[in-house]
Amino acid sequence: MKNARQPALDSQNPRVSGPWALSVAPMMDWTDRHCRYFHRLLSPHARLYTEMVTSAALVRGNQLRLLEHSHEEHPVALQLGGSDPVELAKAAILGAQAGYDEINLNVGCPSDRVQSGKFGACLMREPLLVGECVRAMADVVDVPVTVKCRIGVDDQDEYADLQRFTTTMIEAGVGILVVHARKAWLEGLSPKENREIPPLDYERVYRLKREFPDLTIVINGGITTVEAVREHLAHVDGVMLGRAAYHDPFVLARLESDLYGAALPDRADVLDRMRIYIEAELARGTQLKHITRHILGLFQGEPGARGFRRQLSEGSHLPGADWGLIESAMAPLRQAA
User: Fold this and answer.
1) Among 88-102, 185-199, 262-276, the least confident range
2) Known catalytic residue: 35?
3) Catalytic pick among 35, 109, 122, 133
4) Exposure pattern of 61-84 as b/e (b: 16+ CB <10 Å)?
């Protein structure tokens, strides 16, 4: 299993036992390369994931744009969506050749678009097909091939269904399973409602780990605090944060401190470390708004946070917006520190 870029872990901390202990979920329209670069500055250990890329788009589309990432992002995984084993194998090869540390198959997204394309959460009804897809990818790449799934889908809501799905994944060679502890309702609920309405069932994921102790299981869904992460790591191998890591990104720094013993950084210093990246991106034609939208929550809960967000939101889309706007937005925060 190739994972050469994974940072050394603290073997003295029982909460940190492997490269999947802490990760940030793949989130459409959120976890692009600018977001991942920023998150890496906050947490050197967290495993990062791309937005979902469909195998068809990757095999037939603009591979350079879809696969672009920075060396600093590692360890970083490419998440694929699809249900054609041959096409997924080709996409996995492209991902591995581009340097990604892991290929992850999406079996959890509930959106209408993925249902119509026969991938995402609807594949939980077809574990044998998912197994074929996983084997096809694992046969052609040296990096880990993993699966991200739900605890169930629609009326398929018994533990036995998740158990059978997991058994099939193991038989297909999956060693790491990321489980969103909320089932997906594909009929009658929107993707947004699927993030909130079906109840979370962490115990079902814990039970899965007890019954499959050799399988690395990462839990995802509704996890927002350092204390919650600690509690989950007492039951499973890893925790994946989603929206909390995006809307309150400094939680990643707090987790880095709690789990790995790192010194808690100054938030303004984190942004200062973004300057070289931001100016390089501006020089190549990237608009500032595409980067600053990811840093709006950095000062969440701090005095002056609202003014910081407002100044960036109002100014980053204007022609000529550059690092000076960020300096101006940070000035009151620096004075208050």
Assistant:
1) 185-199
2) no
3) 109
4) eebeebbebeeebbbbbbbbbbbb
